Amino acid sequence: ADGDDNNTVVSFVIHLNGQPDPCGTTRLVTQEQIDKWSSTAQNKYELETILTDEMVSVLNTETSSCHDEDLEEQTNNNNDDDDERSLYTFCDRGPELTPILLDHKQLIKTQHQTLPCRWYTREGLRITSGEQLQALLETAKNRSSSTSSCSNPQDASDCDTSTQAEGTATTEVHLYAVPAGRVFMFAPAYVGEIFQLDHLKLLPDVNKPIYLKVLSTNPRVFDILNVFTPEEADAVVQRALNETSPTHRIKRSTTGTTENAVFTKRTSENGFDTHGTVALALKQRIFELLGYDEYWDGHDDGLQVLRYNLTQAYIQHDDYLTDPGKKDTFDYESAKKGGNRYATVLLYMTDLPDGAGGETVFSEAWPNDVLPHHRTHLKTAIKELRKNGDTQLAGITEGSWEEEMVALCRTRLAIKPHAGRAVLFYSQHPNGEMDRNAKHGGCPVLNGTKWAANLWVWNTPRKGYKGAPIRDDVDPATLSDNGPKQLFATFVNTGKDPAMANAELYYESQKWGPLHPDKPLSANTYEGHRWNVRVGDEVVTSWVIGNEQKQQFVI
Ligand SMILES: O=C(O)CCC(=O)C(=O)O
Ligand SMILES: [Fe+2]
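A: This is the predicted complex of the input protein with fe (ii) ion.
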C-alpha cells in the first residue's frame, strides 16, 4: 500500500485547545478529499474555515464530545439538540465569550454561519496552508509506516498509530482546535512529557532542537530547552545596565501609582528592554514558540530584566491582573471577551551556587519527586530554617515574608535558576479563566546575584494598544480612540551641567533641535519611543517614553 497515495486514508484525531485527551476521531478521509481542501483554500483564513466545516462533517458524532462543555453548563441546553453539541459551538463560543483579536475581521464564517477554529499541531504550529497540511500528512504517514516510532508507550499522543486493513494504511493526524478569539495553549499530559518544536529554527550557535519538557500539569509549567544563547543573555544584561532612561532603566519596583511608592513585597530591581535588537529577537522567538504565526504588537509587556541581589525576592503573586475597583476602561475579564496575561516566559541569565535560593516557586504546587504523605508542612520548614541558621546568615530576619518564602521554596514546586534555563507557564486555563494554581514568586537570593528576564504575554492586545478590549459599561464616546495613546513630553536642559551646553535632542537618530539651557523642547510622542540627547557625535542620555499623559525629562 505504501507509495500509492490515493489508497491512503487518514483519520483526524481532534483535540480541544489545551486538552491532552482527544475529544473525537473522524471517519476515514481519502487523500483526494484532502487535496481538494488544500487546493480550495486561497489563504489561511479560508483553510481554517474549510477545516472547521469538514471536521464537523466527518467527525464520528456518536463517539465524540468535541463541543463546548462550559456553554452547555451555562445555558443548560437539552442534549438532544445536535447543533448545541457540535464542534461549531466550541469554535464559536458566541460574542460574549469571544475576544476580538487583531485579525478578527479576516475570519470567514462557516457553513453554519459561525466563526471557525484555528487549527494547530500538538507542538503549536498553526496550520496556515494546504502545503502545510500535506506536509503533516506525510510526516504522519512516514511515522505510521515505521512502527518503531512509538518508542515511548506512555506518550500515545506523540505516536500516530497505523492499522492495516485490506492493504490500506490508516494514518492518524492529531489536530488541535482553538476557538475563534482564543490563543493556542500546549496540552501537557504528564510530568516529563516532551514537546519537540521542530518547526522552530535552530539557533546557529546552539544548533540543538528546541523542545519543551513538562514540569507540572497543574499549573501548566514547562522547561524550554535550547531557546536562547549565553551571548543573548549577556547582551540583555549589558543593555539593562547601560540603560539610562528613567522609565526603562533597572530600578526598584514601584506599585505603579507613583514613582516613589516602592513595592515592598518585590525587592528586586527591574527594567524594560522594549527596543533592543536581542530583546526583539527573543520576543519574536517566544511568540513563535507560543503558537503565533506572526508577532503581534501589544500582546506583551516588553522583555523585563530582573536583578535580585542578596535577600531580594518577589512574594508569591499572580501574573494575571485584576481591577476590582474598575479603575480602568480596559476589560481584564479574559474568561469572557477581555484580555489578560496568559503566558509567562522566564529566562534565567546566571548560575547560582547550590543552596543559594533564587528559585521560582509555585506555591500551590508540590515537587514531583515527593510523595503526597512526605510533603513538608510550612511551619516545619520554617523551624528547620531557624535551626540551621543559613537564612539569617544571609540577612533574612525571623518572621519576615522573605523567611516564609524561603520555607515555601524548600517545600513547594521550585525551579532552580541557571544560565540559559527558560521556563514557560500559563496563568489562564484554555477557556480564558484565571488559573489560581499558577501563583508563584521569586525566592530570596541567599548567595550571589540572580539575573533573569520575563516576558508576560497577553491573550489580547494590552491596555493602550490598538485593539485592546474595552469594558462594556464604558461609553465609547468618552474614549479618544483605543489605538496607541498620544502623549506629551517636555525635554529640559537645566544648564547645571556645563558639558550639556551644546546638547541636541534627537528622536531615535533623527534630529529634533538644540536643547539649550532654559529653552525646553516639547513633542507629541508615544509610549516606548526613544529620545536621545547628543553632544557632538555621542549619545549622552537616552529616554524612553513611559505611559503617562504628560512627561518631563531633564538633564
Ligand atoms: O524571578 C522569578 O523567579 C519570578 C519572577 C516573576 O514572577 C515575574 O517576573 O512575574
Ligand atoms: Fe510573576
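The longest strand covers residues 168-178. Residues 5-182 form one domain.
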